[in-house]
Amino acid sequence: MQIEEVMKRKVITVSPSTTIREARRLCQEHRIRHLPVVEGETLVGIISDRDLRDALPSVIHKEVEVDDIYQHPVSSVMKKDVITIHPLDFIEEAALTLYTAKIGCLPVVSQGKLVGIVTESDILHSLVELMGVDRPSSYLKIEVDDTTGRLADVAQIIKECHVNISNVYVYPSKKKGKKNLSFRVETIDPRPIIERIEQHGFRVIWPEKLDVKHNAQEKTQQRMKAKEQNNDGSANL
Length: 237
What we know:
Blueprint: H1 20-30, E1 34-39, E2 42-48, H2 49-55, H3 66-70, H4 91-101, E3 105-110, E4 113-119, H5 120-131, E5 138-145, H6 150-160, E6 165-172, E7 178-185, H7 191-199, E8 203-206, H8 212-231
Antiparallel strand pairs: 1-2, 3-4, 5-7, 5-8, 6-7
Helix pairs in contact: 4-5
């Protein structure tokens, strides 16, 4: 999935001369945490709600006039060295950049112009959708030999069970000569799949021998409850 598919295109911006008071008002009114600073369509900086808070004096330093600070332009507190991303970059790259740079958003720039913005919440939500966790499903972890074709073998078994695969990824096992296959399958009762996989000689690491159906149903209910709670909230840059 590329950035252009998940970015917000309607971006609230300010100019370098915008006052701290106005920037603070925009953040509060639109319930956002980042404001790109532009000159025309060119990105020249970014300011966060934390930057705005840091610009204000502590409550114990009452001798400083807050009104004076509010009149300062955002150019006095904005960050000028802005990390950006391109609309055709992939969300995995955005996630890595947000994580390594410890930042909360990435302005999207194309041909020198600001065209959108993505936040850590946007990226996280997209990854959740890609992994299929937001739909009724089950997680399977299978250990196989680190040889060619094992992924196709297990996928074929799941296909024969007439169950769709939401996502799959492969990662090394701690055991030499082995690797792990992780599947998200679109069923809340994976027991028939597990039985077939084990019949073919593969080792299912997760779920373990327990009440698989109950476990999956419980997790589905938890996700639905969390989704309902999130629907009561508001999107936030």
